[in-house]
Design a protein that fits this description.
The complex is a heterotrimer.
Chain A: H1 14-19, H2 24-54, E1 59-60, E2 64-65, H3 68-87, H4 89-104, H5 112-131, H6 162-191, H7 204-235, E3 247-248, E4 251-252, H8 260-294, H9 301-314, H10 330-358, H11 367-389, H12 392-398, H13 402-432, H14 438-464, H15 484-514
Antiparallel strand pairs in A: 1-2, 3-4
Helix pairs in contact in A: 2-3, 2-4, 2-5, 2-15, 3-4, 4-6, 4-7, 4-13, 5-6, 6-7, 7-8, 7-9, 8-10, 8-11, 8-13, 9-10, 10-11, 11-13, 11-14, 13-14, 14-15
Chain B: H1 2-22, H2 34-66, H3 80-109, E1 119-126, E2 129-134, H4 155-158, E3 172-174, E4 176-180, E5 184-191, E6 196-200, E7 205-209, E8 215-220, E9 225-231, E10 244-249, H5 251-265
Parallel strand pairs in B: 1-5, 4-10
Antiparallel strand pairs in B: 1-2, 2-3, 5-8, 6-7, 6-9, 9-10
Helix pairs in contact in B: 1-2, 2-3
Chain C: H1 24-27, H2 39-75, E1 78-80, E2 87-89, H3 99-131, H4 144-170, H5 179-211, H6 215-245
Antiparallel strand pairs in C: 1-2
Helix pairs in contact in C: 2-5, 2-6, 3-4, 3-6, 4-5, 5-6
Classes of the chains: A mainly alpha, B alpha+beta, C mainly alpha.
């Protein structure tokens, strides 16, 4: 039985046609492998970083000893690659492109050519970013957040010249691609749903992609404006972010009147929604998987939808919590603090509803389900450090320490990535017609779950002890010395966890060619991507499992 | 596998609880007055969130184990009452926590003791060292000229002190911050080049030092001793070695030290 | 074969095979979505592309809002004069070159021209069934003159903007001279860049008008481009007012 999802009729055949395909499924896979490549580079960078922190003088095979300024460029590029090219690309670009049209019963995305364009612009952005490593001066060192004046003055550090400009160019391209992609998503959801597929019958994955796309549209445009202004400060002599009297390397800059805080406001107005862009698809997927594998509807479907909308909307009102100690007005800080605590409420609602979905279910612990459960656990752990950081008096102590590093890594680096793994295992049969090996999958889960906790839980304590972040060497400050054993533990845990990811890579590629062939609906799911050839309109919502009085244990959305 | 998950989550919970309670790696002993409120807020917050953490993780593990495959699923789309209840409770707790922290925040950011009793110090963050300036007998900070900054000529030149300004003649510029215990210290924070951040863990004090902005911070140290000042905002190559020293001394020792410095300055 | 085929193995299906993942009714034609062959698809396409351009408005609007907020904040900034210790605002109000009025007029006229083109086309589509009699030729060049006029007027606007830049440069006002001039150059340049994007769409529409027989496709392109063009006009008026009154 063939899967009769159609490809775009306009696709030309041959190599060029395949490379520049307008088929959403091909584009989805292209995004998947792009983000995989970015993740491999990003993880390699983090391994180098962890290695250097605890063995600063050790010489590595190809690199020699890592110098402090190189550490900072590793850090900057790690953050940039992971946040933009993995967390913004994989959940939305890869799985969204692949599954969204299928799940709403559309033949294609609304604008296939635009979709293809978005992908290739993203590839270009990726290549431009990587080129920063090889130019003179190297990659920039001001962190993915690039606070000026450090990022605005080429002489303020190595890599802040050409490397910084390449970063700006790369992200400019990425913003453009992202905005086009998000418009595509929004129009597709609003306009291409199959008959009977009302908004309230959408799978929560689709809701998540939809809301994420709206956030992308609104956030990336602001980032674009910010980097235009930064570029002007760097090259046109303007003073948006550079105040007067700045002395760098013995010379006084001619700029005057700019405000470094202006960059922070603009950047974080983008930056905070960005983290919700990274996590919302994972939340939607978790709801989806918990329901599918507990054989129960999502507990409180409507509440889940409204919670995601609330998170999206409130996400634009809390950016100041990154700036409590920045010199910002304390009253503004208080307002941001209250709003940040409020945004914890919809997240809590979602967590309760996930537990409610499991309650009285009949849980099938498949590999995707393990990762979905892992997501809930890690999201709770990472999320709970949020209300701590949201209180400015506490953030005064914890800002820019490893506590913050623990918080955002648990949510973005672990939970969101766990969701990406879950999506891979779950949709692999759909994408490749085969199963991934489940024994290897379980092994991968345990490595990742235990390993990630082993890496990031200790960082909370580093932060409580006052350990600042972004230190390229830990040998200078006395009170950090007793913390070195903990840092060493983290490094070992990280290296082991990274090694464990090889299981996933092997499983992925081996299964693409040699995996056990998959039945059409191996997970007995109800959503449209698993249906085969029905031409009927959508009859019901997406999570009709164990409906009392129904003729089957699960009812597909299109089933009569 | 369900049992394994439950065990894992129980271990996670117990391990985390133990580490937070045993405080093996924890905040250093408090050395400031305003820090007490912060520490109290920490304890209260950790207690509340810790409870939530335990309930959520154990609950998750328990549900996964109890409702494993052998169970027959019960169809349920939700429960309005429960949803309203936990939403309301969460909202109340979170907003209450936020409002409760407001007073501590206001205290940190406000001034309360009269200016004459305060020790005024200007802090200058540069790539990659801290400099501290005392106003001297005239109580006034002299002018600084960015164009004359030259760290190789000593501390005074490192901040560009205008030697022609009469108010600057008695300014004392040091590489260490020396303050008397039990007296309010007001810091005037400046940055010369990029954003830095003045952080002393024992004081529970952190404030970003931003070029172009004059930000003030204040504290009152309670314990004698030597504390490290570290930079808490990425400022370039030497960010990791940009640390200074805070020495809290007795009132007498402070007066002696200051007179000595002022003598040397003249 | 029982195995679920991989994406790259899927061919274009036969016409009877509609696909479980795509019932034909909402799809608006086949996968490419921009064919617009049958009449019902036309309204579908129009709706989809109008939604597209509306979202583009939002994106562009937010971009300029970010720049505007930077503008307002920067306007209030300055520095502390190290001589006197007083805070000095460094924003020097900019006198806008008077040619900007003429440019605004040109842009407004170009919007009118484009609106003529759009309405004519819409009317043509409405009466299309009636004139779809074999032998009756469609007046292909109906909209092309209006589109050409829009392009000329739009080009005039851009030329005028360039002249405004020249006038400022002749007066010694460059991008880094003062924050007010920085914003002038950046706002006008950003607007011009977005307008050029619209002009490219117009050239495409004009090309369709001359070379294509598909009326509906042309209408969709012109309709959507004209909305975008009007938005660019309104955006320009906003930028002009901002720079005129917030100095």
């Amino acid at each position: 039985m063939t899967d009769s999802s159609r490809t775009d009729r306009g696709t030309t055949s041959g190599i060029l046609g395949r490379i520049f395909s307008r088929d959403h499924k091909v584009i989805g896979l292209q995004y998947f492998f792009l983000s995989l490549a970015a993740a491999l580079v990003g993880v390699a960078l983090s391994a180098l970083m962890r290695f250097h922190l605890v063995w600063p003088d050790a010489s590595l095979p190809f690199f020699g000893a890592i110098k402090p300024e190189q550490y900072l460029s590793l850090l900057t590029m790690h953050g940039t690659l992971m946040i933009f090219f993995v967390l913004t690309t994989a959940p939305q670009g890869a799985f969204g492109n692949y599954c969204l049209p299928l799940q709403i019963g559309a033949r294609e995305m609304a604008f296939p050519r635009l979709n293809m364009l978005s992908f290739w612009f993203t590839v270009l952005a990726f290549l431009v970013l990587l080129s920063a490593f090889v130019v003179s001066g190297g990659a920039p060192i001001s962190g993915w957040t690039h606070y000026p004046p450090l990022s605005a003055v080429a002489s303020a550090g190595p890599g802040q010249g050409m490397g910084m400009d390449l970063w700006i160019a790369s992200i400019g391209l990425f913003c453009f691609a992202s905005v086009l992609g998000s418009i595509n998503f929004i129009v597709t959801v609003l306009d291409r749903r199959a008959p009977g597929m009302t908004m309230m019958r959408l799978p929560l994955t689709v809701w998540a992609w939809f809301i994420t796309a709206i956030l992308s549209l609104l956030a990336f445009t602001v980032l674009h404006a910010a980097i235009v202004l930064l570029f002007m400060d760097r090259h046109a002599g303007t003073s948006f972010f550079i105040p007067e009297g700045v002395v760098v390397n013995g010379s006084v800059l001619q700029h005057s009147g700019g405000s470094p805080l202006l960059w922070q406001h603009l950047f974080w107005f983008f930056g905070h929604p960005e983290v919700y862009i990274a996590i919302l698809p994972g939340m939607g997927l978790t709801s989806h998987l918990l329901s599918t594998f507990a054989r129960k509807p999502v507990f409180g479907y409507r509440a889940m939808v409204y919670a995601m909308m609330a998170i999206g909307a409130l996400g634009f009102m809390v950016w100041g919590h990154h700036m409590f100690v920045s010199g910002m007005n304390p009253f503004a800080a208080f307002a941001f603090s209250v709003l940040t605590m409020v945004i914890g409420v919809p997240s809590a609602i979602k967590t309760f509803n996930w537990l409610g979905t499991l309650w009285r279910g009949s849980i099938r612990l498949t590999v995707p389900m393990m990762f979905a459960i892992g997501f809930v656990s890690v999201f709770v752990t990472g999320g709970l450090s949020g209300p701590i950081l949201a209180q400015p008096a506490l953030d005064t102590y914890l800002h820019d320490t490893y506590f913050v590093v623990a918080h955002f890594h648990l949510i973005m680096g672990v939970a969101a990535v766990i969701a990406i793994f879950a999506a891979t295992y779950f949709w692999f049969p759909k994408m490749f017609g085969r199963h991934m090996n489940s024994t290897l999958g379980y092994a991968h889960f345990w490595f990742t779950f235990v390993g990630a906790y082993a890496v990031f839980l200790p960082m909370h304590f580093l932060g409580m002890a006052g350990h600042p972040r972004r230190y390229s060497q830990l040998t200078e400050v006395h009170y950090l010395q007793p913390l070195l054993p903990l840092q060493r533990f983290i490094t070992w845990a990280a290296l082991v966890t990274i090694a464990g990811q090889v299981i996933f890579l092997f499983n992925l590629f081996w299964s693409i060619w040699r995996g056990r062939t998959a039945e059409p609906n191996p997970w007995e799911a109800t959503t449209l991507e698993w249906s085969q050839g029905q031409d009927s309109p959508v009859m019901r919502g997406p999570y009709e499992f164990n409906v009392p009085g129904a003729k089957a244990e699960f009812l597909m959305q299109q089933e009569e | 596998m369900a049992r394994a998950l439950l065990v894992a989550l129980v271990l996670l919970t117990c391990g985390t609880l133990y580490l937070f309670i045993a405080k093996i790696w924890w905040m250093p002993a408090l050395a400031s007055t305003s820090g007490a409120a912060i520490d109290r807020e920490f304890s209260a917050t950790l207690l509340i969130l810790g409870t939530v953490f335990v309930v959520a993780q154990i609950g998750l593990g328990f549900f996964v184990w109890k409702y494993r495959r052998s169970n027959t699923a019960t169809y349920s789309t939700g429960h309005r009452g429960a949803e309203y209840a936990w939403t309301a409770i969460t909202a109340i707790i979170f907003v209450a926590m936020s409002l409760a922290g407001e007073r501590t925040w206001a205290e940190l950011r406000g001034a309360h003791s009269p200016l004459e009793q305060e020790v005024q110090v200007e802090v200058t963050g540069t790539q990659f060292a801290w400099y501290f300036r005392y106003p001297g007998l005239d109580g006034k900070f002299g002018k600084t000229i960015p164009a004359t900054v030259d760290a190789s000529l000593g501390s005074a030149a490192a901040i560009g002190l205008d030697t022609n300004d009469p108010a600057a003649k008695d300014d004392v510029v040091t590489a260490a911050l020396v303050v008397p215990a039990d007296r309010e210290v007001r810091l005037h924070l400046h940055a010369q080049d990029v954003i830095h951040s003045f952080f002393v863990p024992e004081l529970r004090l952190k404030q970003d030092v931003v070029p172009g902005l004059n930000v003030e911070a204040h504290f009152q140290a309670t314990r004698l001793g030597e504390y490290e000042i570290v930079c808490a905002e990425l400022c370039g190559l030497g960010h990791y070695r940009m640390h200074g020293t805070l020495r809290v001394v007795s009132e007498d020792d402070f007066s002696k030290w200051l007179r000595q410095q002022e003598g040397a300055a003249r | 074969m029982a195995r679920y085929p991989r994406s790259d193995e899927l061919e274009s299906p036969s016409s009877i095979d509609h696909g479980g993942s795509g019932t034909p009714h909402y799809g608006g034609g086949d996968g490419s979505g921009d064919s617009g062959d049958a009449s019902p698809d036309y309204y579908q396409n129009l709706r989809r592309y109008r939604l597209f351009v509306f979202l583009v408005f939002i994106g562009v609007f937010i971009f300029f809002t970010a720049l505007s907020s930077a503008y307002i904040i920067r306007r209030g900034n300055g520095h502390v004069d190290w001589q006197t210790g007083a805070f000095v605002r460094d924003w020097q109000p900019l006198t806008l070159p008077s040619i900007l009025w003429m440019n605004t007029l040109l842009l407004a006229l170009s919007s009118c021209a484009l609106e003529f083109a759009r309405r004519n086309l819409v009317r043509q589509v409405a009466i299309a069934p009636a004139v779809a009699v074999p032998g009756v030729a469609r007046e292909k060049k109906y909209s092309a003159p209006w589109l050409a006029l829009t392009l000329i007027l739009g080009g005039g606007f851009l030329a005028g903007q360039f002249l405004a830049w020249e006038r400022l440069r002749a007066a010694g006002v460059f991008i880094a001279t003062n924050p007010s001039s920085s914003f002038f150059y950046i706002l006008t340049a950003s607007h011009a860049a977005h307008l050029i994007g619209g002009m490219l769409a117009l050239i495409y529409a004009a090309g369709l008008s001359i070379f294509s027989t598909k009326l509906e496709r042309e209408v969709v392109v012109v309709d959507v481009t004209s909305w975008y063009w009007h938005f660019m006009g309104l955006l320009w008026i906003y930028i002009f007012l901002l720079m005129r009154f917030a100095q």
